Every structure is written in structure tokens, then in C-alpha cells.
Amino acid sequence: MHDTKQLITIKGTRDGLTLFIDDTCSFDEAFKELREKLLANQPQKKEPCVPVTIKLGNRFLREEEKDSLSNLIKEENRFTIQSIESEVIAKSEALSLMEDSEVKTINRIVRSGQVLEVTGDLLLIGDVNPGGSVISTGNIYIMGSLHGVAHAGVKGDRSAIIAASYMNPSQLRIAEYISRAPDYESDGVYMECGLIDEEQDKIIIDRLQVLAHRRKSINRFERRINNG
Amino acid sequence: MGEAIVITSGKGGVGKTTTTANIGTALALMEKKVCLIDTDIGLRNLDVVMGLENRIIYDIVDVIQERCKLKQALIKDKRFDYLSLLPAAQTSDKTAVTPDGMKKIIKELKQEYDYIIIDCPAGIEQGFQNAIAGADRAIVVTTPEKSSVRDADRIIGLLEKEDIEPPSLVVNRIRNHMMKSGDMLDIDEIVQILSINLIGVVLDDDEVIKASNHGEPIALQSKPKASIAYRNIARRILGETVPLQSLEDESGMFQKVKRFFGMRGN
């Protein structure tokens, strides 16, 4: 019966091949057909490696299934897997995505020697004293004075920003970038933010107003979802 | 039922022991029953500052290890009947003191005394944990130096995790001319960073060191500014509202006239 319908559809695009796997059959059936297809199309001679995008439709793959699928495709080094895309995600993944994009509001003073670490964005109502540090996977907003260390986008999000009512940090860190205060004694600045300037390849500090055009969509949940 | 107050700072040499001795003395001057406890095992010197060194027979470790009764270890002050000192041990094993042991001693002392003032060792290790164990409230001493303020901040952070009242701040060793010239942190700056209640400011005064060396806490004298400052702190502990001492040197008549005309003193 299933012979009448193709379970695997392969399309060539500019960026390589796109593999559509039908989402109504069982994984084993699709796996079997894919193997047959790959065996049937043995290359005559050495061909360059082709990038493949796999589209699963409404199918959810467990880690083992993903592994065996990619092992099958990568066999003999004919293809490299660009991405495995699915319309559905696990609940746990969705929850962690939501946590990543949530703003955590915390009301306290981060004192010397203390470390405040959050997942998602941090809204701190209070100061970060010298020797204290705040760390988040997203942006950091401080309604108070920043004297210590702030590390935004700790998991590598370079678009993260650090904003403070009073900015006089000992260090600003965004993703893997670090900038430190000058060696001479300096007064802080009011209502400014730190962000990575891609052109200068470093962290710059600028007025909060520049965020309006430099970071147009600060942390919209939809943006995070669409970017994965 | 008395109240136990721990005097702490984090950094060493900022004047914890001097502050303990003087606040204790000042409270005793106001006819409160006060007991001082030195918890700096191995480096005791509250007894020296109080001038009671040669009266020590038993110490806090003896009490904890039950070699003597608490009453036997207490040294009565030579000036006040209602001021006592529980000295630290100089040689005994410092691991003998535990937070539970301290709580027990303080609980017993609270029956008898109005105020128990605990002198905390420098640092944030076991000695600190012991010292704050039985305290109801804390006074953090700092000097107008960055390193000292940084450590005070750390200590306040640790105190906030404990089940005690929010700590109060004493800024010690203020040198007015340096503060004015901007070479020292000024008091507003310190209070802003630490954001706790300021309970007293004490000027740096040679007399304080002289008095400590004689074993007569400066609070016993009536004139020096530092003495007035300590007595003001004691009054604030009792709940009185006392305005902060002016740090200006008001000795000259000219200064007074200038102030009268609303001019700023230098």
C-alpha cells in the first residue's frame, strides 16, 4: 500500500538537497525507504560532499532516532547534514525557550563577592556593588548603579545588551567579549548601555537611545522562537 | 532579656576591638549591664584595650569545654561593676569554639546583662561564623578606604543571609582634611554603596591609640571628639535620636564667627 506513496521526497535547491520525510508513516518505514534510496543511487565516481537539510514536518524525533538518521545519511561521506527541522518541539524544549526569553525581575543589592546568575533577561532593581557580578543568558537591565561586573549573553548571544541607570562597571562582558574600565579613576555615566559593535569588533558604551535602531527587537519572544 | 550585638568588619585593623571596648564602656557609663566577648581566639586583645589582661584566669574555650563555669571566666571591669569581659583563649585549640557553643553562652549571658557586645575576628572563616552565631544585630565597622568598604560590603552580604536584623554602619578613622580634599571616600559615598543605616562616625584621633595603650578606653574621657562619637553611638543603640557629629574642627573663635555669618569653614 505504501508503495503508492513516496515517503521520502528529495529536492535540489541552491543550498544543496532538501529531504522531506513524510510524517504520517512510522519512523522505521521511512528509515528503510531512505536506506534503499541511498543504496540505489550509489555515486559512479568521487563527488563533492552535498549539504542536506532534513524537513520532518509534524514528526518529532528522539535523540537516538536523530543519531541513527544522521549516521545513515553521513555514511560514506557523501552528504553533510545542515539541519534537521521539525514543526514540533518537545514541551521541555519549549519551556526552556520560554525561560530563555523571560525577564527575571530581582530586587536586591548584589554586594562584593556575590554572584547573581539568571537564565533569560535580568531586570535588577538595585545596585551591583564593586566586586559583585551579575550574569545572564540574555540582556541585563539594571535600575540602579552598576559598579561591579556584568556578563550578558553568557551562552554566546552577541546581540545581548547591558543597560544601567548609572554605569561605572569594572568590567562589561557580552558573549565572549570583555571590556574593562580604564586604569585611571573615572566617573560613571547615567542611562547608558553596553553592546557589541560588530564593525569595531568590541563592546561600546552608548546612550540608551541608540538601542532603538541598533537592537530593534530586544528580546521579543517570537524572535527567539523563530531564530531557534 | 538582653540584646547581643556583634561588631564586625571583614578587614583587619579597622578598629573592631577599639569600637567594641568603647561602645561597651559608653553603655556602661549609661548604667547598662554590659558583657564584652572576645571571639578572636589566638589573637586576643580586647582584654589589653580594656586594661584587664592581668586578671584573666579562665577564657571562652575553658567555658565551652566545661573546665569552668561561665561566671568564673567573666572578668569584672575595674571601673564599672556592671561591665564584664569574657576573654578569648590565647593558646587553646580554636576549633573548640562552635556556633552552638557561642549560642549557648550568649543565651546564658542574656539573662544577666542588658547588652552583650561581641568582638569579631577579621576574615569570613569559622571565627566570623562563631561570632555572629548568637547575635541579634550587627554593627559593621569600616574606614574610608576602598579596600575596607569592599570588605564591609562582603560582610553585609553574608550578614543578610543570617537571621539577624539589618546591620548598622560605623565609619571609623575619618581624617577630615583628606576627606575634604577628596583623597578619602566621603561618608555619603560609603553609605550610598553599602546602603545600610549609619549609626556613627568616628574621627581618627591620636588620643584613641594613647588611651588603648593605657588600657583606658577613650569613651571614659569627656573631651575628645572620638569619645563623644562613641558615646553617641551608644545612645543611638539605646534608641535615642542623636544628630551626627560635625566633623569640622571648631576650636578657633574665628571659625565660630565665620559659621555665624553663614560662611563655609575650611
UniProtKB/TrEMBL annotation, chain A:
Residues 8-84 form the Septum site-determining protein MinC N-terminal domain. SUPFAM superfamilies: Cell-division inhibitor MinC, C-terminal domain. Signal peptide: none annotated. The keyword Cell division applies. InterPro entries: CAP/MinC_C (IPR016098), MinC (IPR013033), MinC_C_sf (IPR036145), MinC_N_1 (IPR055219), Septum_form_inhib_MinC_C (IPR005526). Interacts with MinD and FtsZ. PANTHER family: SEPTUM SITE-DETERMINING PROTEIN MINC (PTHR34108:SF1). This is Probable septum site-determining protein MinC. It comes from Ornithinibacillus caprae.
UniProtKB/TrEMBL annotation, chain B:
Keywords: ATP-binding, Cell cycle, Cell division, Nucleotide-binding, Septation. GO terms for biological process: division septum assembly; negative regulation of cell division. The keyword Nucleotide-binding applies. Gene3D superfamilies: P-loop containing nucleotide triphosphate hydrolases. One of its GO terms (cellular component) is cytosol. Residues 5-218 form the CobQ/CobB/MinD/ParA nucleotide binding domain. The keyword Cell inner membrane does not apply. CDD domains: MinD. InterPro entries: CobQ/CobB/MinD/ParA_Nub-bd_dom, MinD, MinD_FleN, P-loop_NTPase, ParA/MinD_ATPase. SUPFAM superfamilies: P-loop containing nucleoside triphosphate hydrolases. GO terms for molecular function: ATP binding; ATP hydrolysis activity. This is Septum site-determining protein MinD. It comes from Ornithinibacillus caprae. The gene is minD.
